[in-house]
Amino acid sequence: MILVTGATGFLGAELAKELILRGNSIRCTKRASSTIPQLLEPYAAKIEWADADLMDASALEAALEDVTQVYNCAAFVSLKQADKDPMIRTNVRGTANLVDLCNEKGIRLVHTSSVAAVGEAKPGELITENHHLDSSTETDGYAISKLESEMEVWRGVAEGLDAVIVNPTIIIGASAGTAGSGQIFETVRKGLKFYTRGTIGFVDVQDVAKCMIALMESDISGERYIINAENRNYKQLFEEIAGCMGVPAPTTLAKTWMMELAWRGASLFGFLTDKAPALDKISARAASVTREFDNNKIKKAIGFEFKPVSESIKEICTALKH
């Protein structure tokens, strides 16, 4: 039996679908209050759902009965400052529970981390799996939670756990709709006026799922892999999305002081409305930073070729138009 945690999320649902299309009957965890994603509705007969939060070790243990492989896609994600400590605590403790149970039961694990947990390279160099985030200077709660969750997996590996870690860049795909990375496309569609100088990596959600499955089915253990199709600067990305959407592309450079005002305004609005801010300080500053990722390790490990980002953009725009 294969278990997918976080299968009600963007990546988890896509991974579950890909496993089913390959002929697997799978078990997926969800919270009691979670809604089964529309993407998985056609495959209801192939999925056994288990109500199990990673923080509930006993429920998680029950969900792991007869399981030989686990894909961990579950995570608490929030931009709210008030959620920073609970997010770190939940993601780290939940991963620790899963690691302990997988180790105890001899279950192989593919753990989803993020490039938020990967460090910085020197100017002009690509970021690789050998770069590590400096926890003593990092202030982003999500990055800290991902880094410390990885540390729990590495602890498990040191204790004998059979595990691999993946660090995707920004995951895009039509099934995101207008949530998560889909907000980028929706914002451009509505008429984005500004662009930033930054560069970041992008990868299609289907490719992330395929890489995870290929790693699970390999004999690789105790390694981490950056999952990235292409590095794109935001100006180029916005222009391409705008072209696909048939709307004007942003033409004004958002300077540093503008971004500082933007995140402060978003923070105040979020405080007054008790909603997650559309932009936080970390995201605002990261939008002007160049972070380019090397994908050679994963390509060599499993012989993988990524879908071009332009192809993903066309698919997403077509889906949003309809």
What does this structure look like?
This protein is of the alpha/beta class. It has a domain at 2-174 and 201-229 and 292-306: NAD(P)-binding Rossmann-like Domain (Rossmann fold), CATH 3.40.50. It has helices at 10-21, 57-63, 84-105, 141-158, 182-191, 205-216, 234-245, 256-273, 281-286, 296-302, 309-321; strands spanning 2-5, 26-30, 47-51, 69-72, 108-112, 163-168, 170-172, 194-195, 199-204, 223-227, 230-233, 252-253. The strands form three sheets. The protein has a seven-stranded parallel beta sheet with strand order 3-2-1-4-5-6-10, with helices on both faces. Strand 5, helix 4 and strand 6 (163-168) form a beta-alpha-beta unit. Helix 1 (10-21) packs across helix 6 (205-216) and helix 5 (182-191) packs across helix 7 (234-245). It is globular.
Structure keywords:
alpha/beta, Rossmann fold, seven-stranded parallel sheet, three-stranded mixed sheet
Determine the CATH topology of the domain at 2-174 and 201-229 and 292-306: Rossmann fold
Write down the CATH class of the domain at 2-174 and 201-229 and 292-306: Alpha Beta
In CATH, what is the homologous superfamily of the domain at 2-174 and 201-229 and 292-306?
NAD(P)-binding Rossmann-like Domain
Query: Percent of residues in beta strands?
Result: 15-25%
Main beta sheet, described?
Answer: 7 strands, parallel
- Structural class estimated from helices and strands: alpha/beta
Helix content: 40-55%
Q: Assign the CATH architecture of the domain at 2-174 and 201-229 and 292-306.
A: 3-Layer(aba) Sandwich
Q: What is the oligomer described by this structure?
A: single chain
State the strand order across the main sheet: 3-2-1-4-5-6-10
Low-pLDDT segments, ≥5 res: 257-264
Average pLDDT, rounded to a whole number, is 86
Task: Give the number of helices.
Answer: 11
Shape annotation:
globular
Radius of gyration, rounded? 19 Å
Secondary-structure element pattern, one letter each: EHEEHEHEHEEHEEHEEHEHHHH
Rounded to the nearest angstrom, the distance between the terminal CA atoms is: 37 Å
